[in-house]
Amino acid sequence: MELDTVGHCSSRGSLIAAVTHVCTMEYVAKMLGEDLEMLEEIVANDDNLSYGAIISVHTGRDEALTALTDDGIEELKDMLADARRSSQTWSDFLEDFVGEPEIIARVKQNGPR
User: Fold this and answer.
1) Does residue 11 fall inside a structural domain?
2) Number of domains in the chain
3) What is the DSSP letter of 69?
4) Residues 77-110: pLDDT tens digits?
5) How many CB atoms lie within 10 A of CB 20?
């Protein structure tokens, strides 16, 4: 529901579910059994997941953690599953979304699963 210009409820808006919890990238990596640095590289570009799926949690003046909503975790799982359809799609995915040679080499050793 939205408020109109004088602060009254407007029926033209819609309700959006509130995010009540998020999971840190470290926890997401453990849950999914994935390489943390690979996941961090993927979500470093916030265009890779839907708007609002990636949350920055500021822990100090110049410090922040990245966290994902439940929807963000599901999108990431789906993205990884699609990428692992074959060795070639997995390799292409890593080159496109990760880019860091050391991380790619480490993750490729584990294969597409």
Assistant:
1) no
2) 1
3) -
4) 999 999 999 989 999 999 999 989 999 999 988 7
5) 7
1 inside domain: no
The answer to the question of residue 13 being in a domain is no
Mean pLDDT of all residues belonging to the chain = 86
pTM: 0.79
Domain that includes residue 65, residue range:
20-109
Give CA–CA dist 56/13, Å, rounded.
Answer: 27
Which tens digit of pLDDT belongs to each residue from 40-61?
999 999 899 999 899 999 999 9
Looking only at the bridges linking them, the beta strands covering 54-60 and 23-24 are unpaired
Flag whether 91 is in a domain.
yes
> What is the DSSP code string of 1-53?
-EE-TTS-EETTS---PPP---EEHHHHHHHHT--HHHHHHHHHSGGGS-TTS
